[in-house]
Amino acid sequence: MKTLQIKTRQMKTLPALLAACLLALTPSARADVPAGLEILWDPFGIAHVYAPDEAALFFGYGFAQMHSHGDLVLKLYGESRGRAAEYWGREYIRNDRWVRTHDVAGRAARWLEEQTPAFRANLEAFAAGMNAYADRHPEALDAERQRALPITAADVIGHFHRIVHFSYLSSFARVRAAVQDYEPAMGGIESNAWALAPARTGGIETILLMNPHLPWRDWFTYYEIRLTAPGIDLYGASQIGFPVLRFCFSDTHGFTQTVNGINAADLYALTLTDDGQSWLYDGEARPFETREETLRVRQPDGSLTEEILPVRHSIHGPVVWDDDGLTLALRVAALDRPHLIEQYWQMALAPDFEAYQAQVRRLEVPTFNITYADREGNVMYLYNGTLPKRPPGDWDWTGIVPGDTSATLWTEYHPYEDLPKVINPPTGWVQNTNDPPWTSTWPRILDPDTFPSYTAGREHTFRSTRSLRFLTDPEPLTFDRVRHLQGDSRLEGADRLLPPLAAAVAVHSSPEAVDALNVLLRWDRRVDPQSGGAVLYANWVARLMGTTFNDRSQLALAQDPADPFTTPGGLADPAHAVRELLAAAAETRTRHGALDVPWGDVHRIRRGPHDLPARGSSGGLGSFHVNNYGPPGDDHTREVVFGDTFVAIVGWSDEGLRADLRLSYGNASQPGSPHAHDQVELLARNTFRSLIRSRAYLESHHTRRDQF
Asked: Considering only CA atoms, which of 527, 535, 676, 681 is closest in space to residue 595?
């Protein structure tokens, strides 16, 4: 960005002890420790918080997160303040520029003032719990990370705000992707959600499958916890630093989420005038609104330098790109809705389906599909978000739109009634696998032609079709069967592409092509650890459809949204497909010594002391069980970097609540924690833990007790 100006003024830092004393005296950073609060930790490092009231519950939640992920929490909160470079050096400067350009911390402070008194008290208690842990256990936290202490309630809002609005809804990576040939880091996010009414499960149980897939790092990390207080008993997970559960279930109901990619942020191309001091709008020059942000950058010797970041605003929002003659402003939805965290909390506490619907109707949460189920047998899918009411015209809302005309400016959002949703369909089920809402049940109920064209795309993936195959099969989806299918790794794409490949090899034959084809025909079409041929197949499809498996130009059948079970498919150029097979075979043999090398020999789960064979692949290949892998290492193996995170299969019946659970990488990241990698073997074996809710059991099986 050309707008950055740099001043190199050296600043003396306070001695560490004096800084710590000043921080300890910061108003509202410390709070009284609630009496009667207790945390029991189960054998997998899951905190079970027993609190006398709601505020104490939030205090315990904050305390528990710091015990499990304190260094990561402090890093993330420093980033969300836009002060990470000040604390830890220049490697964080791009983050700080992005956060400060959007005034995340300033808006968070304003949003804090708009909270209801009761919920503000909860947020302050959550921050106080984090600070209390740091006060009790400073030796457990990295000294450099402690520069971000103390945590305030505004920090809690600011972190949630940064992740939801400026990482999910918009991000600098997406800006860059719109301008350059660049694959954003969030591209390819792949999560699964099912809600099954008793009519679909055999008549006795409502089942909810929570199955988010995200990178195994940084702010994407999930934290699993149980929260109990008088009238409250919640279980689930959320991302590190969040004070409420985004994946939640109780005795009465539960909800899960998948990324929906709702288009709620637009880039506007500005036409500059007056030497860049103004921009043209409906033929008139309008001066930018401007402000300056001072960024501090820690140097290796501990001193600080300052950089001045000028921020310019048009009517659309701040300028986020100014290079090579292109100036872009970003307009992000829902920046006028400060209660998204409270909405999540009230969704969790809803006593019945009607109360739950009243909460999601608020649309404070600006993105994510939300899938719901309850013990009464209700199921619901909502294409949730603050969808702008876009003006008519031939504009490409997925790219860059002109910012020099009022004809492209939106100022309102579609109400809840306008959003695609399915409630208690005749099929008895709803689902989402990050596909558009039109396949939320099948035969489909939602007609895309009855919604504005910018609502959602019409594409579906092979993984989406795999999900639909399971759900439309007449066999009852019992709890045990859902547990089995969650780990299913058969590739839908292979069922589409191998028959035409065999026909192509028959015409464009060579001994090498026949050998490679025979390996693929013997292969079980799965990506299980022992599957021989899966590596060859993945290499071939990557050459045919790109490394993210999204380029369908080489397929003969275009996608038909009304026919997900046979389209897309086929081979547009059979001879080209055979040439790519030969190239893939040569590469596979060179790297791995054999065409039928087992999938698990090449794809590994490496966390801490573990080095285990992996299963699953990108959903682009058509596996319902998703794991994505980093680039090949020196030994040509690839490690899981993205995939199954928190998984919960939850069932409600007359016999009560049950759940099978897994948090693939473990529930802690603090150095030396025994729970940093203790669930990796569950993932490798495709097994689960059973839900623990009995306090009597925990009294005799807890691994740690914190009392207040």
From this structure: 535
Distance (Å, rounded) from C-alpha 213 to C-alpha 120? 31
pLDDT in tens, 274-285: 999 999 999 999
Backbone angles phi, psi at 604, to 5 degrees: -125, 155
Q: Please give the single-letter amino acid code of residue 535.
A: V
Angle, helix 153-163 to helix 54-81, in steps of 10 degrees: 60
Helix, strand, coil percentages for the chain (3-state, nearest 5): 35, 25, 40
Q: How distant, in Å, are the alpha carbons of 54, 58, 101, 194, 688 from that of 125?
A: 9, 6, 29, 34, 33
359: phi > 0 → left, psi -120 to 50 → alpha, else beta; which? alpha
The residue-averaged pLDDT of 95-121 equals 98
For 70-119, the DSSP string reads HHHHHHHHHHHHT-HHHHH-GGGHHHHHHHHHTTHHHHHHHHHHHS-HHH
Q: Please state, in angstroms and rounded to a whole number, the distance separating the CA atoms of residues 112 and 341.
A: 11
- Domains detected in the chain: 492-623 (1.10.1400.10)
Q: Say if residues 65 and 155 touch (Cβ distance below 8 Å).
A: no
Q: How many CA atoms lie within 13 A of 193 on its CB side?
A: 31
Q: Residue 182 — pLDDT band, cuts 50, 70, 90? A: low
Rounded CA-CA distance 540/525 in Å is: 14
Q: Report the C-alpha gap between 213 and 640 in whole angstroms.
A: 12
CB 99 within 8 A of CB 170: no
Count the helices and strands in the chain (H runs, E runs): 20, 31
Return d(Cα 248, Cα 232) in angstroms, integer: 12
Query: What are the pLDDT digits (tens) for 607-652?
Result: 999 999 999 999 999 999 999 999 999 999 999 999 999 999 999 9
Structure tokens at 377: 């047998």
Per-residue CA distances from 172 to 157, 183, 392, 412, 563 (Å) = 20, 12, 27, 24, 36
Residue 6 belongs to what H/E stretch? strand 5-11
Q: What is the pLDDT of residues 215-262, one digit of tens each?
A: 999 999 999 999 999 999 999 999 999 999 999 999 999 999 999 989
Q: Rounded CA gap, 478 and 531, in Å?
A: 27
Dihedral angle at the C-alpha atoms of 101, 104, 105, 109, nearest 10 degrees? Answer: 130
In total, the chain counts a number of residues equal to: 708
Name the helix (H) or strand (E) containing 629: strand 627-629
Question: For residues 145 and 71, is the Cβ–Cβ distance under 8 A?
Answer: yes
CA distance 130 to 124: 10
Q: Does residue 185 sit in helix, strand or coil? A: coil
HSE-CB of 325 using CA atoms within 13 angstroms: 0
